[in-house]
Write a structure and sequence with these properties.
Structural class: mainly alpha
Low-confidence stretches: 340-347
Oligomer: single chain
Strand order of the largest sheet: 1-2
Number of helices: 26
Helix content: over 70%
Largest sheet: 2 strands, antiparallel
């Protein structure tokens, strides 16, 4: 693989990435504040890449595909960096929120989490001495998490990308589109453009018109977002069950890349829990969900409440099974990973494992310094072995199905189960994977690099160069948005809706009113999935338990739409020919993703400009 050194990174990559940070980052921030949605993320990357390619072409110099790959991947900083500062801003909001004052826990919130003086919140200023400790803790934990994420991502790539060679089906369209845009092959470029145009037309109806009509005080919705909810139609026959169809065209296109057996396995997992499982609970009057359920309850509410009250414990066991069962059944995979002395030419697996352990131990030490009343063994268990297993589990599911899943409330469940009576540990920045899994994202990036002939080392170096720049710029921009208007407020309706809900959930844990973790159910979930995995593997039955587990953690409408995508893919394969379809479907999927992303980006930009104009004093 070719490599791009530090000098080349600055000279060839700096302008496009700085453009994404300075120009597209404000759009990302505004869209999050207005919708609490980061669906603009892909559009930021594609817009940056296309602009870069055209600028280099007009200047008479072609942009190498390796440089194009780095521009695409590293420009993601334009939307990921602001989220870090917005989380810090949420911490200050939480301390001063009505729910915290109502529960009387405001004074118990430690100063390392958010400034204690409420006047700072009212002044809307980051440049205050009381912010030094929260920002210092934030930067320290971010540094440790970055080291852990990259090292664990490289370990996962060594195991699943280079040793087991999982397909990572949704990374191939990204790589294919990068190569297509750079090389401009006539046939593939035509298919790329047509699929983008179709996606643009659909996305205008789905996202564009609803976004823009907000300017005039209307909400025109031609297609339900994010899914067509059929619950009210099935509840007379299956009380408690959920069913719907996802309306995002990129989810349908994702099914093009997956075999029908994989998407059907995912659908089986979703149906088992959220259709038949919830139906069984309500029809038998079992558990909290049966008490909370009412006829006509929508998919989103049914999914959240059944997950929190019933399925969260089995899903923890299922996550452990997904990570451990393949290694137990095929231990040679793990042994082969450690036999290879080099990774990407230099970094050995043992060295990467050492970096991961040191960085997570650093997180444990930081947590102990901030919350000495939390038993150290709990911090070690969550930060080192648990996070390692989750990182492996999530990456394996992505490598096989392309599906990203999460295990929410891991730290909260643990603190609640051990009967933790203090407050500091609820806010300490312990490195715990589950709700998010950055190492899995790094692993998908390494797959894109492999497909485009780009060095993993070049990616890591380039990202580390621009991450501090993006972090500083996003700090300035978030502070500016906060200065324009309070966050949350009517000017930023997204966080006005979602932050109070998030604060309520957080307070339920801290006030010790939620007791939902059941170790026996986690054990049964682990035992069931492990047994079925071994049974299907030994008898060579074409059912993917990894995909089933991924479906268990995904809202049902998404898996339904992916199955429809796989069915359409099978039909197109028969109509167009197997060879033609398999060579070109990645290009079509990439075009669909680009088209939708550009519509979201343009619509968000229009609305942001209109909102900004409405805030002027004249």
């Amino acid at each position: 693989m070719s490599r791009i050194n530090l000098k080349e990174a600055f000279t060839k990559l700096s302008l496009p990435i700085i453009y994404a940070i300075l120009v597209l980052q404000p759009i990302s921030i505004w869209l999050y504040l207005v919708t609490c949605n980061i669906s603009v993320s892909g559009a930021v990357q594609w817009a940056t890449l296309i602009l870069s390619i055209e600028i280099y072409r007009l200047s008479g110099r072609g942009l190498p595909k390796e440089a194009a790959t780095l521009i695409f991947l590293v420009s993601s900083l334009a939307y990921s960096s602001p989220l870090l500062w917005l989380n810090l801003l949420y911490a200050s909001y939480y301390r001063n929120s009505p729910i915290v004052k109502m529960l009387g826990i405001q004074e118990a919130i430690p100063s390392f989490y958010a400034p204690s003086d409420p006047k700072i919140w009212l002044r809307r200023e980051f440049l205050d001495p009381d912010w030094i400790l929260p920002i210092g803790v934030f930067l320290c934990s971010t540094l440790l998490a970055t080291a852990a994420n990259i090292s664990l991502g490289l370990i996962a790539w060594r195991l699943y990308g280079e040793t087991e060679k999982l397909p990572f089906p949704l990374q191939r369209p990204i790589a294919d589109s990068i190569v297509t845009l750079v090389e401009r092959g006539s046939e593939k470029m035509r298919m790329f453009a047509v699929s983008s145009l179709i996606s643009i037309c659909y996305a205008i109806l789905l996202y564009g018109i609803p976004f823009v009509t907000q300017i005039f005080g209307y909400q025109m919705e031609f297609i339900p977002i994010p899914w067509i909810d059929l619950n009210k139609h099935i509840h007379p026959f299956f009380p408690g069950a959920s069913f719907g169809i996802g309306t995002d065209i990129t989810i349908l296109a994702a099914g093009f890349m997956l075999p029908l057996s994989i998407t059907l396995s995912m659908l089986a997992g979703s149906m088992a829990l959220f259709f038949f499982g919830n139906w069984f609970l309500v029809s038998r009057g079992l558990g909290v969900f049966a008490e909370q359920w009412v006829p006509g309850m929508n998919i989103n509410m049914s999914w959240q409440r059944s997950l929190l009250s019933t399925w969260i414990s089995p899903l923890i066991g299922i996550t452990l099974s997904v990570g451990l069962s393949p290694l137990i059944l095929r231990p040679k995979l793990l042994l082969n990973m450690f036999r290879v002395r080099g990774l990407d030419g230099n970094s050995g697996v043992w060295r990467l494992l050492l970096i991961y352990i040191i960085s997570t131990i650093g997180s444990v030490i930081l947590t102990y310094a901030l919350a000495p009343d939390l038993p150290v063994w709990i911090s070690i268990l969550l930060s080192i072995p648990w996070s390692f297993i989750v990182g492996m589990s999530v990456t394996r599911v992505i490598g096989l199905t392309g599906l990203l899943f999460s295990v929410p409330y891991v730290k909260e469940l643990t603190l609640s189960t051990i009967g933790y009576s203090g407050y500091s540990a609820w806010f300490a920045p312990l490195y715990v994977l589950g709700p998010t899994c950055p190492p899995a994202e790094w692993c998908t990036w390494f797959k894109v690099c492999e497909l485009t002939g780009t060095s993993n080392r070049s990616l890591i170096k380039t990202w580390l160069i621009f991450f501090p720049i993006s972090l500083v710029c996003s700090f300035v921009m978030v502070a500016r948005f906060w200065k324009i208007a309070p966050i949350p407020s009517t000017i930023y309706p997204g966080v006005s809706v979602f932050w109070p809900v998030q604060a309520s959930f957080q307070s339920l844990w801290i006030s010790r009113t939620l007791h939902i973790f059941r170790p026996d159910m986690a054990f049964y979930g682990f035992l069931t999935v492990s047994s079925l995995y071994i049974f299907f593997e030994v008898l060579h039955i074409p059912v993917s338990m990894i995909a089933v587990a991924g479906g268990c953690m995904t809202p049902l409408p998404y898996t339904v739409t992916m199955v429809l995508g796989s069915i359409i893919s099978s039909l197109l394969e028969k109509f167009l020919g197997k060879k033609f379809w398999r060579e070109n479907r990645a290009t079509i999927v990439a075009g669909v993703s680009l088209g939708e992303g550009l519509v979201v980006m343009v619509a968000a930009g229009i609305v942001m400009i209109a909102k900004a104009a409405s805030l002027t004093p004249y």
